[in-house]
Design a protein that fits this description.
The protein is of the alpha/beta class. The protein has helices at 2-16, 19-57, 83-100, 132-143, 149-159, 180-193, 206-217, 227-242, 250-253, 263-271, 298-304, 345-363, 379-388, 400-407, 428-439, 445-460, 468-482, 486-490, 526-534, 562-579, and strands at 75-78, 103-108, 117-123, 169-174, 197-203, 254-258, 280-284, 319-322, 329-334, 340-343, 369-373, 392-395, 412-416, 422-426, 498-504, 512-514, 519-522, 541-546, 552-558. Helix content is 46%, strand content 17%.
């Protein structure tokens, strides 16, 4: 570009010799010189930036030989192995921000893992999980040895054609783990070493940080990017939904909440005043004593199928548990015989989707609603949704990102994993139709009432990610509006007894699946064996899938009785052991 401009200019000088042309020529030369100077200063700036990365990365050295994989949950391991990872995720978030010209989030948490662990997740501009390609970059950057960190960094910049002169903005949040303060500082160091700007939110739930990022990048149209803005948006929608429910007693407003001794408990305390006693929360495991996730929290309750420690449950009382970073929720109660009843993600999806379907019918809105499940969804929930409620059900691979992506294909997509992580997505078109009907003065009273409830429900749901606090308020509002007790909700359908087992194998990659992980393609003969075993039992099904993180194969079986489910799971485990290269002892019968 430079040579061409000077050449044209000097040629015109030779031809014309006019004073004006000479002035024009020197003007062009000055411009070329200034462009060259600008390029030189950009280069200097870039060199200085990389020098700062090089110097600061020495304060966050990578332990030699340590390799970690960025998965659905981000990075997650013992906190002592994570300092270098956090610094490098600060670097990556800065690059992602420059690339997307948007604010990016970095959340320091290990969710439902023990307190000694920690982890980190990156949040994309609309509050969604980071893309698969960038998950790859995260792994690449995290595992680069100290002396090749700059090379890997430059490789990403080149591949993505990132303009390093673009500004960068990164939002950072952390949970209550003892290690979170120093690890989030490492993220801040990473961002600042590449010249990025940060907003440190300190202690927030994971869904709150997703919400903040979305608010920022939608310029406030999704809400105000503060914790107070979050509380106001959700509480206002909740109060609008429950204000017209007649004769709600204090007992009906009372809810026992297990905060898992984590950030969710802290934020629930902050939110209580906004709910104006319309929900009377009795908080246990609030972090004032016990350890995070220890014998409490959604994961403990789901896996152990029993109430958390530290919660005094009365017979039939409605209870729920958050997990460590408050992005999962499960409900439960005990009956008069002392039996424990769990209402997991399947029951939550069923309650919310049937409520939404009824409102759509009452409002006369022709919008397609679907429930997205994985192979782990209980067969009874699938049958109830499809056969009784006539709600479309779509099955996808395990993992929140697969569910979220599939839910985006519908006007209204409801997704919950059985573990209680999930939300509802409303397409732009669906939201537009709802808003237009609210404003339509010709709408009759019944339609107007239904569509206003829909509008408030949209505002109450955190569409960016599963959110225990938002999901809890949706469930409480739906139960109130429909006049249902937790027992009524539980009785919608009865879960089929099921059993999950795992079989250790020499290489999990020998198992390849299709049909949303419900059928095994390899090794040869395994699916035929499973099919013939399933035929021996009533209302039965079974599938196997490789773990994403270790050399084990996960086995799921369900049938009409506990004994049959256990027996089928054991027989399928033996088939996996025999055909897929099992190691160690043969799977033993459960009884």
């Amino acid at each position: 570009m430079c040579h061409c401009a000077v050449y044209v200019c000097s040629s015109s000088v030779r031809q014309e010799r006019g004073r004006g042309d000479v002035r024009h020529c020197s003007h062009v030369i000055r411009e070329v010189g200034s462009a060259a100077h600008s390029l030189r200063s950009q280069k200097k700036q870039k060199m200085a930036q990389f020098e700062e990365v090089s110097q600061k990365s020495k304060l966050h050295p990578k332990p030699e030989g340590l390799t970690l994989q960025y998965g659905t949950a981000g990075f997650r391991t013992h906190a002592k192995h994570l300092d270098h990872i956090m610094f490098r995720m600060g670097l990556l978030a800065t690059l992602r921000s420059k690339k997307t010209k948007s604010t990016i989030g970095v959340m320091v948490t290990a969710s439902h893992n023990p307190e000694e662990d920690n982890g980190v997740k990156l949040i994309d501009p609309m509050g969604e999980m980071v893309t698969v390609v960038w998950e790859g970059y995260a792994t690449q950057l995290a595992n680069a040895e100290q002396d090749s960190l700059l090379k890997e960094l430059k490789d990403i910049i080149e591949k993505e054609d990132i303009d390093m002169s673009e500004p960068a903005s990164v939002y950072i949040g952390k949970d209550t783990r003892p290690s979170s303060a120093s690890l989030s500082q490492a993220v801040l160091d990473g961002v600042s070493s590449l010249g990025g700007k940060t907003h440190d939110y300190g202690l927030v739930t994971t869904p709150q940080l997703h919400y903040m990022v979305c608010c920022c990048n939608t310029h406030g149209s999704y809400g105000s990017p503060t914790t107070e803005g979050y509380y106001q948006k959700l509480s206002q929608a909740f109060l609008q939904l429950t204000q017209n429910v007649p004769n709600r007693t204090d007992d009906q407003k009372r809810l026992l909440v297990d905060g898992a001794n984590g950030i969710g408990a802290l934020k629930m305390r902050e939110m209580e005043p906004f709910l104006r006693s319309e929900l009377q929360v009795v908080l246990s495991n609030d972090g004032s004593s016990g350890k995070l996730n220890h014998m409490c929290g959604a994961d403990y309750v789901k896996v152990q199928q029993k109430a958390p420690q530290g919660m005094n449950m009365g017979v039939g009382e409605r209870c729920c548990s958050f997990d460590g970073d408050a992005d999962r929720i499960v409900y439960y109660y005990t009956d008069s015989k002392g039996c424990f009843h769990l209402l997991d993600g399947d029951k939550i999806a069923t309650l919310i989707s049937t409520y939404l379907k009824e409102l759509l019918t009452q409002a006369g809105l022709n919008l397609q609603i679907a429930v997205v499940q994985t192979a782990y969804a209980n067969g009874s929930s699938t049958r109830y949704l499809e056969d009784v409620m006539k709600v479309a059900v779509c099955c996808t691979k395990t993992g929140v990102k697969h569910l979220h992506h599939a839910a985006q294909e519908y006007d209204i997509g409801v997704y919950f994993e059985a573990n209680g992580h999930g939300t509802v997505l409303f397409s732009k078109a669906a939201q537009k139709q709802i808003q237009e009907l609210v404003k339509d003065s010709n709408t009759n009273d019944e339609k107007k009432h239904a569509v206003k409830l829909l509008e408030s429900t949209v505002n109450l749901i955190n569409q960016t990610v599963g959110d225990a606090i938002s999901d809890m308020l949706v469930i409480e509002a739906v139960l109130a509006i429909r006049g249902m007790s937790v027992q009524d909700w539980d009785a919608i359908y009865t879960d089929l007894p099921n059993r999950q087992l795992k079989v250790t194998v020499s290489d999990r990659r020998v198992i390849d699946t299709t049909d949303a992980e419900r059928k095994a393609v390899t090794p040869e003969g395994l699916q035929d064996t499973i099919d013939s075993l399933v035929k021996k039992y009533k209302n039965a099904r079974s599938f196997v899938r490789p773990s994403g993180t270790e050399d084990v194969v996960r086995v799921y079986a369900e049938a009409d009785t506990h004994e049959s489910a256990d027996s089928l799971a054991h027989e399928v485990s033996l088939a996996v052991y025999r055909l897929a290269g099992g190691v160690g002892d043969k799977p033993k019968p459960l009884h």
